[in-house]
Amino acid sequence: MNVLQVNKFYYPEVGGIENVVQNIAEGLSNSHITRVLAARPRGLGSSDRHNGVNVTKVSSLGVTMSVPLAPTFPVQLRVASRNTDIVHHHLPNPLSTVSQLIVGTDDAAVIATYHSDIVRQTTALKVYRPVLDRFLTCVDRILVTSEPLLNHSTILKQYKEKCDVVPLSVDLDTIDAENTQPLDVDTTGPVILFVGRLNYYKGVEYLVDAMEQIDATLLVAGDGNKRAELEQRARKQGVADRIHFLGYVPDAQLARTYRTADLFVLPSIEPSEAFGIVQLEAMARGLPVVNTSLPTGVPWVSQDGKTGLTVPPRDSDALAEAVNTLLEDDAQRRRYGEQARKRVEQRFTRDRMLTKIQKIYNQVTDEQ
Prior knowledge:
- By secondary structure, the protein is α/β, with parallel strands linked by helices.
- It contains 14 helices and 16 strands.
- The protein folds into two domains: 2-169 and 349-367, Glycogen Phosphorylase B (Rossmann fold), CATH 3.40.50.2000; 172-347, Rossmann fold.
- 40% of the residues lie in helices and 20% in strands.
- The strands form three sheets. It has an eight-stranded mixed sheet, sandwiched between helices.
- Strand 12 (217-221), helix 8 and strand 13 (243-247) form a beta-alpha-beta unit.
- 43% of the residues are buried.
């Protein structure tokens, strides 16, 4: 089977969806011909091969409102779709949905993984919504990353009959084989960890404020446009000496960062955080999670009172209380960590995700 994965960006660009696309493309490469079509953030296009997958990146003039400005993308999609059995889009991505509607598919089946609603660009969504509806009407199957996202999304409501829940995943074999040596961090107390982009919906400012009430070291792994503001906030709150802003952390070092921590915190404040795959990365390593009660897959992935604690978003006091509760109770923290690992093994393995996707691929091609 010849499968084309279509996304905004691809490796080495960093992001949750980018990692998912890479996992699918590489994970199915032994049983399928898998290719990727994406855009460059800026610059001339290229074609290369990475880990057994042919990758085409379309030229781009830059990025606006999170969308690559790649005028030749429809043409490239038309070329890449020839002699293809499955075209698999990853949303939100107005560039690929518009391109798909322009070029059509010939005999290929079209699948879309719906990673999250468009939350912030409300004005643009009013213009884009008819295009998105037309695209979702035309696709053969919609894969949704969690049950809460399917149940709460107003956009998906009218397409439920063609939706399948396919949770995201982590590769436990890779995680279990990694170097377990902890990071060399100058600390004598407990360590809590955040991993992710420092942007508007991650809520790291509330975690910084919570550190006034937490006697621990916070590691912040990730970069973004809010980093300088967050560093200034930490200095203003008098907690800068206990917060290490690590910036972008390569995968090998990131594994050691997880191994260093006693507890993982995902303080996201907007439904743009639809899943939080970093929770799986922490849970797979036996870390309990403190997350927030968003109407998305976030509290479904790590469950309150089972694999960690869930608190209201935008509540620094509640964050501090949850973190302190787990840091002060070693037995509870270990129990949640063990249950977190078991939940990943039962629901969120890479093999489980790939098997379900492959089954859906077979179904839609048989229906063609």
